[in-house]
């Protein structure tokens, strides 16, 4: 019960615009600096370079929430383009992750689509890959619609499917051949659209992982759960799925030892590296996911 209340508080805070604006003035405090790689592109690139040197590959995300104007969306689009250019200029091994609402999806569909084309043209120029992060359920179908439109023109784009959604398995089947990041899900959704029981979410998560792996599609398994990871490793070995057809992904700042262990075992281990001053919503969702993260954050705050 306490855990549920705590989760709801953090999820509410993640969507609060007033708190988000205040957090920009605070800077990377309250432990956020442990999970956000600075506020500038340069700081993100240095973090990626350090992770690469340890045998880890990355995906970089310029954080953004609550974009409500074309000017903000255009600025976010340019940040994505600049990040791809910086990845090439610094010579680091990293993809790009982004959110469509940051690029104007809630303002105008065609405007957002045009912004994505600009970003993907840059990614194509540098032979890089762009991942469209999945947001809340209200944006699920329109995100997949836009992805299908982009896939007619570009190969180097994929998205994320969230296992707690009832529709997840069918979406994975419909997206056969598309590179997917598979996650459990981090937003508060109603029982009408999402499983509420952790055991059911875990069961569905393993099912969609197996479905995508056996379809021959490239699969990113994004989890910090060592039990899930162990089951995926055993399944891939049993089905003789080559290691170059899947990868593990974890968030920057979490389970660092396990990340290094997987890389040393010969698996592709990709670290999700967020940066930017609009970090509050991202940080609150990480606090909501696991009670242990609150202790982690407080330790980071009081150690400063």
TrEMBL record:
Gene Ontology MF, one: proline dehydrogenase activity
GO BP field: L-proline catabolic process to L-glutamate
Cofactor: binding details: Binds 1 FAD per subunit.
Keywords on record: FAD, Flavoprotein, Nucleotide-binding, Oxidoreductase, Proline metabolism
EC number assigned by the record: 1.5.5.2
Pathway(s) it belongs to: Amino-acid degradation; L-proline degradation into L-glutamate; L-glutamate from L-proline: step 1/2
Cofactor: FAD
Protein name, per record: proline dehydrogenase
Native organism: Kroppenstedtia eburnea
């Amino acid at each position: 019960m306490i855990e549920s209340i705590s989760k709801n508080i953090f999820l509410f805070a993640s969507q609060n615009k007033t708190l988000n604006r205040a957090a920009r003035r605070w800077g990377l405090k309250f432990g956020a600096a442990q999970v956000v790689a600075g506020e500038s592109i340069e700081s993100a690139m240095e973090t990626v370079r350090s992770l690469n040197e340890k045998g880890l590959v990355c995906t970089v995300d310029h954080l953004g929430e609550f974009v409500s104007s074309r000017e903000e969306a255009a600025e976010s689009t340019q940040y994505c383009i600049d990040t791809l250019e910086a990845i090439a200029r610094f010579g680091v091994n990293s993809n790009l992750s982004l959110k469509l609402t940051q690029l104007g999806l809630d303002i105008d569909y065609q405007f957002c689509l045009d912004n994505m084309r600009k970003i993907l043209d840059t990614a194509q120029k540098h032979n890089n890959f762009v991942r469209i992060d999945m947001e809340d359920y209200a944006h699920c179908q329109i995100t997949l619609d836009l992805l299908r439109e982009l896939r007619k023109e570009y190969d180097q784009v994929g998205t994320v499917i969230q296992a707690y959604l009832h529709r997840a398995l069918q979406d994975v089947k419909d997206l056969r051949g598309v590179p997917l990041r598979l996650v459990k899900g981090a937003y508060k959704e109603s029982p009408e659209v999402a499983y509420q029981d952790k055991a059911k979410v875990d069961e569905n998560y393993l099912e969609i992982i197996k479905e995508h792996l056996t379809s021959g599609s490239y699969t990113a398994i994004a989890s910090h759960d060592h039990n899930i990871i162990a089951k995926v490793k055993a399944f891939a070995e049993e089905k003789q799925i080559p290691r170059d057809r899947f990868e593990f992904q974890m968030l920057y700042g979490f389970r660092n030892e396990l990340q290094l262990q997987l890389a040393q075992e010969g698996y592709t281990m990709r670290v999700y590296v967020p940066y930017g001053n609009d970090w509050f919503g991202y940080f609150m969702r990480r606090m909501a996911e696991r009670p242990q993260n609150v202790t982690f954050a407080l330790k980071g705050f009081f150690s400063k």
